[in-house]
Design a protein that fits this description.
Chain lengths: ~260, ~220
């Protein structure tokens, strides 16, 4: 049996007194595409940010490819991870943000090359080739020498996707990748994500409000509510036969807005 | 009243002291720049005690007069066994004093960089140092260059304070000349004009730089 690439074990997260995640157990298999849905404030974004180490754990453990992310084993005991250990495990994870966060002081090509050269120490020539191939793939090779400020939102997000992909993570988080885009630009970004998903080998954690898209891309959907995963299953099962009243309610609200 | 003959006669002597004024400004500024950046970074660390101590030091230095600090470095340090030349003491005082102002400027520049840039640094697995040098500072510094430039001019105009610790910069030179001839009008006037002639074009240059940067960063 294959081991999960990501394993959440009894993960809780508090912001002050507010509990946003409540003892969550969750596995992601290698290459698996998981969509996280749920109302805002349900904890799905925090859930993903813990994996990217953008928030720290309150309790529980997360393992990536068999290694503890936030902890390391010393003399048979789990202790807080050193920053060296954290970085070593973190290189398996990549993330695409809602607001792109491109480097405004670098050209498109430099944006994609930067981490390869600085972090991975890839020789510049090689990094340039990899980056250009990736830009070609997301359809933006002709924009290689412009600055992010001159791009549309959809183009920015495609560059951000290219920048994350060249680092070859085993798990990629997409945090509402189309929520900040004008409606007419959503399609081009979803298309790229779909393409990447079809290639298969990279696991994906997709936080989205695009229900049709989740249906199309995901192997499994997890529904978050009140800091817990209330229900999960295959997309067909979730949409057609929601078991819990909360999911039913959530989905009907979506259908209502979609039919407007 | 104003003796032009005498003014022309003493002008080269005053001008020769300008070298000291300018080198004190430049060395002091470099010190203020580097130390200011370090203070700005320390005041933002997550280690609370370090941040608190740094902020305390900044507040203390900003709320005591530069002249007192200069006296302290030059006249009090020797009683602790540290005797410094007027130039070194002056540059040290000037640099440390203005580093606390520059740290505030750096901090505003750093704070203006969106949080997302730090997050993407983590997502792409940059080290803390790489995040600073490759992502944050290249975005934080250009917008504050004009303010930093203005502090450079301010520091230049503050150098006459160093005459108080016997450094022979242009004001001190002028005072010496005045004391010898009992005529202060010419030397002091020359000093004033020299400062203006250097400061004003410099401020125009900074204005121009500001316009250029604004253009570049608001595309």
């Amino acid at each position: 049996m294959t081991e999960p690439i990501v394993r959440y074990n009894q993960v809780s997260k508090y912001f002050g007194d507010l509990q946003v995640l409540n003892k969550i157990d969750f596995d992601i298999m290698p290459g698996e595409k998981v969509a996280l849905i749920g109302p805002s404030g349900s904890g799905k974004t925090t859930f993903a940010r813990l994996l990217m180490t953008l928030e720290s754990l309150s309790s529980g453990t997360i393992q990536v490819d068999g290694q503890y992310l936030w902890h390391e084993e010393k003399d048979g005991k789990l202790v807080k991870a050193s920053s060296k250990h954290l970085r070593e495990v973190r290189q398996n994870i990549g993330m695409v943000f809602q607001h792109f966060h491109l480097f405004p002081h670098m050209t498109v090509l430099e944006n994609v090359m930067e981490a390869q050269v600085t972090v991975k120490k890839t020789p510049e020539k090689e990094a340039e080739k990899i980056s250009k191939d990736m830009l070609d793939k997301v359809g933006l090779l002709e924009k290689a020498d412009v600055y992010p400020a001159q791009l549309s939102g959809g183009q920015k997000q495609r560059v951000a996707i290219a920048r994350a992909l060249v680092m070859k993570p085993k798990v990629m988080i997409f945090d509402e990748p189309t929520s900040a885009l004008d409606p007419e630009l959503v399609g081009e970004v979803l298309e790229i994500i779909k393409e990447i998903a079809d290639e298969g080998e990279m696991a994906m954690l997709l936080i989205t409000h695009e229900m049709d898209f989740a249906l199309e891309v995901a192997d499994r959907i997890a529904f978050f509510d009140g800091g817990k995963i209330v229900e999960q299953g295959s997309p067909e099962q979730m949409i057609n036969n929601p078991e819990t009243p909360r999911l039913n309610e959530f989905l009907s609200r979506f259908n209502a807005t979609n039919s407007l | 009243m104003f003796d032009f003959q005498y003014a022309i006669e003493i002008f080269p002597t005053i001008l020769s002291a300008l070298r000291i004024t300018i080198s004190a400004t430049i060395v002091g500024f470099i010190l203020a720049f580097v130390l200011g950046l370090v203070l700005a970074m320390l005041s933002r660390t997550k280690v609370k005690t370090i941040a608190t101590i740094t902020n305390g030091v900044i507040k203390f230095i900003r709320n005591t007069p530069l002249l007192v600090q200069l006296y302290f470095i030059f006249y009090v340090f020797p009683s602790f066994g540290l005797t410094l030349s007027p130039f070194v003491a002056g540059v040290l005082g000037l640099g440390i004093h203005y580093s606390t102002y520059l740290s505030e400027v750096f901090r505003s520049g750093i704070d203006a960089v969106p949080v997302g840039q730090w997050e993407v640094g983590k997502a792409l697995n940059f080290t803390q140092k790489q995040t600073w040098t490759r992502i944050i500072l290249p975005q934080a510094v250009p917008p504050i260059v004009p303010v930093i430039g203005n502090y450079f001019i301010t520091m230049f105009k503050e150098t006459p304070l160093l005459s108080a610790i016997t450094l022979v910069e242009i004001l001190q030179q002028a005072k010496i000349l005045g004391a010898n001839s009992f005529s202060y009008v010419e030397p002091i006037t020359i000093v004033g004009i020299l400062f203006f002639v250097l400061s004003y074009p410099a401020s125009l240059l900074i204005k121009q730089l500001e316009n250029k940067l604004n253009k570049k960063y608001q595309v």
